[in-house]
Design a protein that fits this description.
The chain is an alpha/beta fold. The protein contains 14 helices and nine strands.
Length: 302
């Protein structure tokens, strides 16, 4: 098979670029050449459902390239939203405090911690319970030459200013996108809330600000009830693709986002702020007007 024919196949351009160590422009300029034999083996493996990231042991995230291997969760684009908000929040805090301490628990490949370290002056600690995840995170810390402390522990044992996390949040009845990524990185009990509850319960004594990525709208009432018991200031929702309207309806049923949160704050005598973040993919599904309306309701003073 010639390159020009192979390029019509999904993922073929990426596979050929990696195998030949050439860019896409080179492929088009030399499309009469035969593809290497390895191409067919890799293509068959990818078509069978094996993640292409594991084959070449790399993944793109936040415009950077990271090392990845089987046994560690493959980063998703939606998590970039959490990273962006965390970076902005940290940099704003650092205008008045040069010693902001951040914990990234359930760090996995370390991508959140590393991007925060690259774009802020915060002291960053990355934690995980998985030895393999910590190994991959350590490789990525060295690869990107950043100052991130890697620690093996169950969620966190440090007091810090900010906790950022992309924890397991999938109910055990839910089907994984593939069988190769680790169960420990996806599942969190029957309702998907086990790890989030644990973070919120333990972190109230140690953290000032939280940013946690979650997905399942059906359990939001329980998450919010748990939230009311704790003493932190910020809770961040990264809304997955296709669930924007569900989140919007939930807060509407509570009399609006700002009213709901303000009542919680007034009841407990606390000044709090909660952010509802739309994922990159979800934003594309809705009109700019809808997005601005939701953002406006969130931006109201609490």
């Amino acid at each position: 098979m010639k390159i020009k024919d192979a390029l019509k196949i999904k993922n073929a351009d990426y596979i050929l670029q990696k195998l030949l160590n050439k860019d896409k422009a080179w492929l088009f300029l030399n499309d009469n050449l035969e593809v290497p034999k390895e191409f067919f083996f890799i293509l068959e493996k990818v078509n069978s459902g094996y993640p292409i990231e594991y084959i070449f042991k790399e993944v793109e995230f936040f415009s950077d390239t990271f090392y990845i291997e089987e046994g560690v969760l493959i980063p998703r684009d939606d998590t970039e939203v959490v990273v962006e908000r965390a970076i902005n929040l940290i940099n704003n805090l650092q205008t008045s405090n040069d010693n902001v301490k951040v914990v990234d628990c359930c760090t996995g490949s370390g991508i959140i911690a590393i991007e925060i370290a690259k774009h802020t002056n915060a002291k960053v600690i990355a934690t995980d319970i998985s030895k393999k995840a910590l190994k991959v995170a350590s490789i990525n810390v060295k690869k990107h030459n950043v100052d991130v402390e890697i620690k093996k522990c169950d969620l966190f044992n440090d007091k810090a200013d900010i906790l950022v996390a992309n924890p397991p949040y999938v109910e055990i009845s839910h089907k994984k996108p593939n069988v190769y990524e680790p169960d420990i990185a996806f599942f969190a009990g029957d309702d998907g809330l086990d790890i989030i509850k644990k973070i919120m319960k333990g972190g109230g004594r140690k953290m000032e600000i939280f940013g946690i990525e979650i997905r399942n709208k059906k359990k939001e009432r329980e998450k919010m009830r748990q939230y009311k018991k704790e003493k932190y200031k910020v809770f961040t929702f990264a809304v997955p693709e296709g669930e924007y309207e569900l989140y919007k309806e939930f807060f509407k049923s509570k009399g609006g986002f700002s009213k709901f949160i303000r009542e919680i704050a007034e009841k407990e005598g606390l000044k709090r702020k909660i952010e509802l973040i739309k994922s990159i993919n979800a934003i594309k599904e809705h009109s700019l007007k809808e997005y601005e309306e939701l953002e406006g309701s969130i931006s109201d003073g609490i």
